[in-house]
Design goal:
The complex is a heterodimer of chains A (488) and B (92). With 488 residues, chain A is α/β, with parallel strands linked by helices. Chain A is built from 15 helices and 11 strands. Chain A has an 11-stranded mixed β-sheet with strand order 1-3-2-4-6-5-10-11-9-7-8, sandwiched between helices. In chain A, helix 9 crosses helix 11 and helix 9 crosses helix 12. Chain A starts with 7 loop residues before the first helix and ends in an 11-residue tail after the last helix. Chain B is mainly alpha-helical and 92 residues long. Chain B is 36% helix and 4% strand. Chain B has 3 helices and 2 strands. Chain B has a two-stranded antiparallel ribbon with strand order 1-2. The two termini of chain B are 33 Å apart. Classes of the chains: A alpha/beta (488), B mainly alpha (92). At the A-B interface, helix 9, helix 10, helix 11, helix 12 and helix 13 of A face helix 1 and helix 2 of B.
């Protein structure tokens, strides 16, 4: 039995038929982590109680109890999610020793469906980054080639699934942080519609943009995970009370009657040749599966980077004000344990606790929200955000889903873009609009670059229409060049 | 961005920054904010700013006390404490 090739539903079948135990599955992943993590740095900490939890899960099963779709399945968790009793750092020194006193709602949902937490995963500090080089705990390496970045900010989550460290993992996506690393690491990643999944217990970066989502080997697994994770939560006022569909039961690769949009503005200059070819092949495959390809337009899409970075940094500067060294987290040391005043107490704590990219973004956000600049920057960005969202609504009148690249190039080399923050921000040109408009988006591995790196296809859908993008994802997965290939 | 302006911003954000950091930030923030200025050319008169991207219905619950966090677990994260109180150094 090749455990790395099985879908969650197939693992469940083997678990039910007693051909496999959850303990064996957990031991299998722990062994792989021990062997490969030292060169990848995807895992920050393992759950020391995993094997006991797996045994308890096996006992329940032996008694005829089945908790749900994830019963006995080990899952890796991005370190943005609070996990009760486990260190939760957000990749930051300021939370280096923080042990969450409660589970995020998503984690609770996964556990209620029988899921097990195997490990907490590395990420860019506070999810601010596109290469996973901004972690206080060191960069994550791409399992396909360790000279390359895994993408970010959920780089640890994407690398862990690609490396076979767990059946699936959780990520968060504020401007592409699930889709882009999924694309770079050759795995499936989905960011659902804003409001689908509760944000309670997820460390806040930019509250109007943040959404959690699964990273998996298969589209079917992503659909299944999403079903478990979604739903209204009284703890998050922005969580939607719409019913959660059984996406995994309604998957269909039949594209007859579907209109696939090609967004004119996403055909950007300087697109890498392998990436362009992969997008074209994906469109051809969907046409072959019965879809009609139509051109659509969102004229403001090229302006999405300034809108996004303005809003994201503004919200971050406010959200990160809570790290003050008083109740939890890092506190600076002072001579004779006596700071000169309260300002010094806060400033030194925050100055020493945050990394360079986080500081940069707090300052940009503070500027954009400051008196005299608020209207020209923050309000202006929110106005353009509405116009951009309206243009997407118009575009979706002519198509069921938009298909594009996630990024202009496949994974880039470690260190290649760290010196120029603005150039790093521009990486996100094809992914941030989805968050600004609150749309669901996913990445499905589809092509390979000349130098052996996977390339994902981005699929963007209408609000709360995850089914259509999952179906398009399945149609692509069925004929993907990456299918059956693994880096390790 | 001028260093003095940047220093005022660092104070607003309560962020201690070294001279070396200030030098880099001054150049980087200047470049990034200049890039943001491209938004000014987009006409937005009368457009209502969008803050939450999807329609939300208010969620109501009964106004009842629920004990959700274990106090001992919460206090474990305190940098310094006395019993169940957070301890801070004297600052006045």
């Amino acid at each position: 039995m090749d455990l790395l090739k099985l879908k969650i539903s197939e693992l469940q079948k083997n678990l039910v038929e007693k051909k496999l135990s959850s303990k064996e599955l957990s031991e299998f992943y722990l062994k792989r982590i021990a062997e490969h993590n030292p060169k990848l740095n995807a895992v920050l900490v393992n759950n020391e109680n995993l094997l006991q939890e797996a045994e308890a899960s096996d006992r329940l099963r032996a008694e005829g109890k089945n908790l749900g779709a994830l019963h006995g399945i080990p899952l890796g968790i991005k370190d943005m999610f609070c996990t009760k009793g486990l260190r939760t750092t957000a990749g930051s020194k300021i939370l280096e020793n923080f042990v969450a006193p409660y589970d995020a709602t998503v984690i609770r949902n996964l556990k209620q469906a029988g899921g097990l937490v195997i490990s907490k995963l590395n990420q860019d500090e506070f999810a601010m980054g596109s290469s996973n080089e901004n972690s206080f705990f060191g960069a994550v390496k791409n399992p396909w080639n360790t000279e390359y970045v895994p993408g970010g900010s959920s780089g640890g989550s994407a690398a862990a699934v690609a490396a076979g460290f767990s059946t699936a993992s959780l990520g968060t996506d504020t401007g592409g942080s699930i889709r882009q690393p999924a694309s770079f690491c050759g795995v499936v990643g989905i960011k659902p519609t804003y409001g689908r999944i509760s944000r309670y217990g997820i460390i806040a970066f930019a509250s109007s943009l943040d959404q959690a989502g699964p990273i998996t080997n298969y589209v079917e697994d992503a659909a299944l995970m999403l079903e478990v994770m979604s739903g209204r939560d009284p703890h998050d006022a922005t969580s939607s009370n719409l019913a959660v569909p059984t996406w995994s039961k309604n998957l269909s690769a039949d594209m007859k009657g579907k209109r696939i949009g090609v967004l004119k503005e996403y055909m950007i200059d300087g697109m890498d040749a392998d990436t362009s070819k992969t997008v074209q092949k994906a469109l051809d495959a969907l046409k072959k599966a019965g879809a009609e390809i139509v051109e659509v337009s969102v004229p403001l899409a090229p302006e999405s980077i300034p809108v996004y970075y303005l809003i994201a940094t503004s919200e971050a500067s406010s959200n990160l004000a809570r790290y003050d060294g008083v109740k939890y987290g890092y506190r600076a040391k002072f001579k004779n344990n006596t700071p000169a005043n309260l300002d010094e107490f806060y400033s030194k704590t925050r100055g020493e606790g945050f990394g360079p990219e986080v500081k940069r973004r707090i300052l940009i956000g503070t500027f954009c929200l400051s008196s005299g600049y608020y209207d020209a920057y923050y309000s202006k960005a929110c106005q353009v955000r509405r116009l951009l969202t309206n243009q997407f609504t118009e575009a979706f009148k002519n198509c069921d889903a938009i298909v594009s690249a996630n990024t202009a190039t496949p994974a880039f080399k470690l260190g290649a873009r760290v010196a120029d923050p603005l150039a790093m921000y521009l990486n996100d040109i094809l992914t941030v609009s989805t968050n600004l408009a609150g749309l669901p988006g996913m990445s499905v591995p589809f092509g390979m670059s000349g130098n052996g790196l996977p390339i994902g296809i981005q699929i963007t859908g209408k609000h709360f229409d995850e089914q259509n993008i999952l179906n398009v994802g399945l149609a692509l997965e069925n004929v993907s060049e990456v299918r059956g290939r693994r880096p390790l | 961005m001028e260093i003095e302006k940047l220093k005022a911003l660092c104070h607003l954000a309560r962020l201690e920054t070294s001279d070396e950091e200030l030098k880099n930030l001054s150049q980087q923030l200047g470049q990034i904010l200049k890039y943001f200025d491209q938004l000014q050319k987009i006409p937005t008169d009368g457009v209502e700013p969008l803050v939450t991207p999807v329609q939300i219905e208010a969620i109501y619950r009964n106004d009842e006390v629920e004990v959700e966090l274990d106090l001992a677990d919460v206090m474990k994260n305190a940098p310094e404490k006395v019993g169940n109180l957070f301890k801070v150094p004297p600052v006045v």
